[in-house]
Write a structure and sequence with these properties.
Order of helices and strands: EEHH
Number of helices: 2
Distance between the termini: 25 Å
Strand order of the largest sheet: 1-2
Strand content: 15-25%
Helix content: 25-40%
Length: 63
């Protein structure tokens, strides 16, 4: 299975940007993506619901 390396981010203001994460290890890509976003505590359930069994665990204490 191919590992996704490019993420298209849609910002609230309406523009979108492609982020190429091919230079980052696969287990760091999702953390980088989430770490670069403005998120509220109420967003956590949505992020956790989006995770699948294929996702690798992290140091997230809420998981």
């Amino acid at each position: 299975m191919a590992v996704r390396k490019t993420w298209n981010i849609d910002h609230r203001c309406g523009h979108s940007v492609d982020h190429d994460l091919s230079n980052r290890p696969a287990d760091k890509r999702a953390g980088w993506w989430i770490g670069q976003r403005d998120a509220e505590a109420l967003d956590l359930p949505e992020l956790l619901d989006a995770a699948t069994d294929d996702d690798r665990g992290t140091e997230n204490p809420f998981r």
